[in-house]
Recover the amino acids of this structure.
């Protein structure tokens, strides 16, 4: 079996469990809220239209956006109420998915209750049933097949949409899909998709069994279907046996690109070796990751100096790297209790890069050298660089006047420098393609580009935890940029592709 | 009137938009009487019937059963004591025949099983108990409907065109069977019907409603000589049909 497949399969049980847990709970809440709403709306024309309208409106919001919206909403709610409301992970995913499950349940519920034969209702009233008796003895049993059809739809939608819960830090089968897409590891994507599809089909099949049991009034079908569903949910709620052994669980965060996956794997190996149980929150948005750490939803992740400087501290000046690191360390500690454990030893910064042979031929080693040569050179930038503050900063210090200036998507930008269409490109300094294409990055003596030191950040809860920090300290200063580039290349290249976990083992072989 | 009035209706009025469905209807029914309510469509027969078990709220007027205002108790409790049979029958499709009948005692908290006894009463074989409504013919379904209405041991039966959807042979048989039950159980019955012949042959008393008012109220033998032309036109239909049939 290929390492990619065996690794994906090894991740599968825990992800299936988490996926079932969040989608099962969301459908359960959808039923618990949706059914009373349907009962209310079917009896009261005044509320029917607004309720159906609202549920429909929620449905038009893309699931991804709905999930992303709940992160800041819960964050604000937590701050306003002073309660410890977790803004990341299970809760926002659950709330968003429950809302999503509402529409089919409400709509079918109303249709079911309104579809009951009026003669039957008149007879129920005529023999002296109270409103409540009529509902429980007549309307709900008769509407059950249609109500259940709505629950089936909700279950299938929710299981599909739950793959997106990954983006707000709730583990799900989306972990496989998102990380697979990012590293172009199609085996991982396929395993994630197939597992999500299998779960959806399984849930749909079992609910269909219950539905047919309700239609035919067959007790074995109803009970068999419900028992199988209950067993699946019970499995989801029970912790995996392999996890029961030892230690406290810590959460490792990662943003959504290869380097982050590799570093998270390396951190995970170190912490496991120290006896911790670990969980991953992959594919976090850039600002979400830091806020999650500050809130304690994530215990450790790697972020970059310049990103924290501009996005979190809202600074626009560009101090020397050591000074920036010192200020970040002091201010993040004072502001959020976050510990900057140390720099890993490499930067992932914007840099200008040229092919080594061309740079040597023209005698260019620094941006000052480039200023002289620029009028004869063509500049290739990625799509956003020319509108970023980094470019304004470079221009104000070096006044580069290129012969031509073009924007490319990253893949084509590297092709352009390789085939000579561009002489100078923008690159991320730890990108594996710098080594692969034998590029050199140009020095920045006037400090136009901020430092993007990779920093190991630890949550407030573990900032004073000596065992935790001791487990991670060997990573500090241990990863020079050449090794990080090589590790990134192992994951990003097309041939002989490795998984992030394999690259992490290569990067930090001692972390056992 | 020498008999004590079991059911007393006074000045019952109910308006639909600008039009009065019931316009000051008063009626006094002694215990044990079988009353047929007849009249053209929209004359207020069903509204009158539903005002008695509070399925319809009248705008004005009062209904008393045994001297007690029907609105003095919760509607559900009132209806436990009144049998109600409708043309569309309304058996609960998710319950078998026995469950359809026993639901009535269940509502008042009793787990009494009267299915066999009541099936016998409406001349259905006991093995029907386990069948579902969809497995029965229309006539069998309405017999179950009558059995269900009788399950709470009511003294008053309200029937809204109970046999209207049945074929003529079944209809005739069921009508006569019900009249026998009426006698045997000492019921008081109000039956709405479009079928004048059925009314004349089954009832003790015919009440003709036209435009929400009582236009005639008499025993079958007397109503045939009523002078009101509209009443006459209605009552004469079966007689003229009978004459034409005899001449065939």
């Amino acid at each position: 079996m290929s390492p990619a497949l065996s690794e994906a399969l090894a991740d599968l049980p825990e992800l299936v469990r988490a996926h079932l847990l969040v989608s099962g709970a969301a459908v359960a809440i959808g039923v618990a809220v949706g059914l009373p709403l349907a009962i209310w709306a079917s009896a009261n024309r005044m509320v029917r239209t607004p309720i159906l309208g609202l549920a429909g409106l929620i449905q038009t919001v893309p699931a991804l956006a709905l999930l992303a919206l709940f992160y800041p909403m819960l964050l604000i709610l937590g701050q306003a109420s002073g309660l410890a409301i977790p803004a990341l992970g299970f809760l926002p995913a659950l709330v968003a998915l429950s809302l999503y499950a509402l529409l089919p349940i409400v709509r079918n519920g109303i249709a079911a209750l309104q579809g009951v034969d009026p003669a039957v209702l008149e007879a129920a009233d005529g023999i002296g049933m109270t409103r409540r008796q009529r509902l429980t003895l007549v309307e709900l049993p008769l509407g059950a097949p249609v109500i259940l059809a709505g629950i089936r739809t909700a279950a299938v939608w929710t299981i599909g949409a739950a793959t997106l819960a990954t983006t707000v830090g709730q583990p799900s089968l989306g972990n496989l899909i998102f990380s697979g897409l990012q590293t172009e590891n199609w085996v991982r994507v396929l395993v994630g998709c197939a597992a999500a599809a299998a779960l959806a089909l399984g849930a749909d099949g079992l609910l269909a069994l219950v539905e047919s049991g309700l239609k035919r009034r067959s007790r074995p079908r109803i009970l068999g279907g419900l028992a199988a569903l209950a067993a699946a949910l019970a499995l989801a709620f029970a912790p995996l046996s392999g996890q029961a052994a030892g230690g406290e669980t810590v959460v490792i965060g990662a943003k959504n690109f290869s380097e982050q996956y590799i570093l998270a794997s390396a951190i995970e190996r170190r912490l496991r070796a120290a006896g911790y149980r670990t969980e991953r929150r992959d594919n976090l948005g850039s600002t979400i990751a830091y806020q999650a750490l500050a809130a304690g939803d994530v215990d450790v992740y790697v972020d970059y100096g310049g990103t924290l400087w501009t996005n979190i501290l809202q600074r626009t000046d560009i101090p020397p790297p050591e000074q920036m690191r010192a200020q970040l360390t002091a201010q993040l500690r004072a502001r959020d209790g976050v510990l900057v454990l140390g720099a890993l030893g490499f930067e992932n910064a914007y840099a200008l890069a040229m092919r080594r042979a061309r740079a040597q031929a023209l005698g260019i080693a620094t941006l000052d050298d480039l200023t002289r040569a620029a009028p004869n050179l063509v500049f290739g930038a990625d799509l956003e660089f020319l509108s970023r503050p980094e470019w304004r900063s470079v221009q104000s210090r070096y006044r580069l006047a290129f012969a031509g200036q073009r924007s490319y998507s990253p893949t084509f930008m590297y092709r352009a420098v390789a085939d000579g269409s561009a002489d100078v490109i923008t690159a991320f300094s730890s990108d594996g393609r710098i080594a692969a294409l034998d590029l050199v990055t140009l020095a920045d003596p006037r400090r136009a580009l901020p430092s993007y030191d990779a920093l190991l950040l630890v949550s407030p809860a573990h900032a004073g935890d000596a065992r935790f920090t001791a487990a991670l300290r060997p990573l500090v200063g241990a990863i020079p940029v050449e090794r990080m580039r090589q590790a990134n290349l192992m994951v990003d290249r097309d041939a002989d592709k490795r998984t992030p976990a394999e690259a992490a083992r290569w990067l930090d072989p001692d972390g056992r | 009137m020498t008999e004590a009035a079991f059911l007393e209706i006074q000045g019952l009025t109910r308006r639909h938009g600008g039009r009065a469905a019931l316009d000051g209807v008063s009626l006094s029914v002694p215990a044990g009487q079988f009353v047929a309510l007849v009249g053209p469509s929209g004359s207020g027969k069903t509204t009158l019937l539903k005002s008695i078990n509070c399925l319809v709220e009248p705008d004005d007027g009062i209904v008393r059963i045994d001297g007690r205002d029907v609105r003095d108790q919760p509607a559900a409790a009132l209806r436990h004591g009144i049998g109600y049979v409708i043309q569309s029958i309304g058996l609960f499709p998710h319950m078998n025949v026995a469950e359809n009948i026993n639901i009535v005692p269940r509502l008042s908290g009793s787990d009494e099983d009267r299915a066999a006894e009541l099936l016998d009463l409406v001349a259905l074989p006991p093995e029907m108990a386990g069948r579902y409504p969809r497995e029965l013919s229309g006539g069998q379904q309405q017999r179950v409907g009558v059995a269900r209405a009788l399950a709470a041991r009511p003294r008053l039966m309200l029937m809204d065109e109970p046999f209207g959807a049945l074929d003529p042979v079944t209809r005739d048989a069921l009508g006569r069977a019900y009249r026998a039950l009426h006698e045997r159980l000492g019921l008081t019955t109000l039956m709405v019907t479009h079928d004048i012949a059925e009314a004349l042959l089954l009832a003790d008393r015919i009440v003709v409603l036209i435009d929400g008012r009582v236009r005639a109220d008499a025993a079958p033998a007397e109503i045939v000589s009523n002078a009101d032309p509209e009443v006459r036109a209605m009552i004469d239909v079966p007689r003229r049909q009978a004459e034409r049939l005899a001449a065939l």
In short: Strands of chain B lie at 5-16, 19-30, 34-38, 60-65, 68-69, 82-86, 156-160, 188-192, 205-210, 213-218.
